[in-house]
């Protein structure tokens, strides 16, 4: 048994089940309402006592940290699958589609990444784990000549950031709209553009676009 195992012995079966129940409840609430929910809210949603919640997590920040680790492990798995794809172009597509699918409808994920309670060290650790894999995906695609030669791994990250905003704004009216802009981006970086990807969803009308862009203002006034 390692020192780490002695320092953190395995939880009893019921304690482990309660911890998992609390994490799933927090995931649901963060995705729906963002990070303003309290540990009491999480306990109530999980159907456990507040005392039980505080035995598993000292505060909400520990819940956020545990969920971020889960989310980033999922993104890392997607990135490794993409890097292992025998077709470099499919690898780029797989990474973006998979990473965005993990964010789809999850309002809490972006807030977790930008939450100051995590600290720079935690965010740096996430970057150090995933950025080299994304770099490998991009460099493989560039070496194969299937993407423009000036593409950078950071471009894939900023595209996700941009599309997460589209997701957040359009989740009620047109939840799949982000896929249209992902297709436009992919066509913009590929070197073989003899044929264009069929866009997976229609564009919003002028009125729908106005509704989406002003939704936050309407909420603030109500």
Automatic annotation (TrEMBL):
Q: Which UniProt keywords apply?
A: DNA-binding, Transcription, Transcription regulation
UniProt GO MF annotations: DNA-binding transcription factor activity; transcription cis-regulatory region binding
Ranges of residues in domain HTH tetR-type: 16-75
Q: What name is this protein filed under? A: TetR/AcrR family transcriptional regulator
Highest taxon in the source lineage: Bacteria
- Write down the DNA-binding region ranges: 38-57
Q: Does the keyword ATP-binding apply?
A: no
């Amino acid at each position: 048994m390692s020192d780490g195992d002695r320092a953190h012995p395995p939880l009893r079966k019921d304690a482990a089940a309660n911890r998992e129940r609390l994490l799933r409840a927090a995931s649901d609430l963060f995705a729906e309402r963002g990070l303003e929910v309290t540990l009491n809210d999480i306990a109530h949603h999980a159907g456990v006592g507040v005392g039980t919640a505080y035995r598993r997590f000292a505060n909400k920040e520990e819940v956020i940290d545990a969920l971020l680790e889960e989310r980033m492990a999922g993104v890392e798995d997607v990135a490794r699958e993409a890097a292992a794809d025998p077709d470099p172009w499919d690898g780029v597509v797989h990474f973006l589609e998979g990473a965005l699918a993990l964010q789809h409808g999850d309002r809490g994920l972006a807030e977790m990444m930008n939450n100051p309670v995590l600290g720079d060290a935690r965010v740096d650790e996430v970057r150090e784990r995933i950025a080299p894999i994304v770099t490998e995906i991009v460099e493989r695609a560039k070496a194969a000549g299937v993407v423009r030669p000036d593409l950078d791994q950071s471009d894939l990250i900023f595209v996700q950031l941009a599309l997460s905003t589209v997701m957040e704004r359009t989740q009620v009216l047109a939840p799949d709209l982000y896929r249209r802009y992902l297709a436009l981006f992919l066509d913009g970086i590929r070197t073989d553009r003899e044929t264009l990807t069929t866009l997976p969803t229609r564009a919003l009308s002028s009125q729908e676009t106005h509704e989406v862009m002003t939704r936050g203002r309407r909420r603030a006034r109500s």
